[in-house]
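One chain given next:
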Amino acid sequence: MLQVSVKEMFFNSPAVLRAVDAATRQVLSKFGSYVRQSDRSSQRRRKSASAPGTAPSAHLGTVKDLTFFAYDPERRSVVEGPTPVTNFQDSLRVLEEGGTMRIRNKRRRIRKLGDGGEVRVVSVGARLEPVYALLTTPQMVDHANRLNAELYGPEVAWKHVAARPHTEPALRTNLDRMPEMWANSVKPAA
């Protein structure tokens, strides 16, 4: 006579929980890797900016290199996206969702005593060109900083950045794979 213990088949039995947890982690890990790969490959390396509404360009590859996925055991889900870095966190959100961000003017410099700086502006044909010299007095430094601001504008500017989503489209692209991954994923413990 065959004896089967029904208690071993309850969903709260340790054997069933181990099999389901292992299957969940495995499926979500595979899904996370697919989403990460789609996310990273959507970011093309190019010099020009991407069109609004499309994945961002990977000028330096920073966002691409910081994109990871991880299993969240508390929520039993997978999290994918660029890892927030202290100085870069707001930029990642604005890049994904759009918004206003502070942009540093790369041509603008703060001149200091002992450095070289603008001392006057001369006309060369139709354009104005700065003349540089060593800044030896505080008055020269103030004058150089004023000239630098006049020539190149403010040190920082607030600019609107259109959304360039990459994480959510990668997720949507791979959602069709989920049922296939879950099929026969829970196997009895050996």
The CA atoms of residues 19 and 186 lie 6 Å apart.
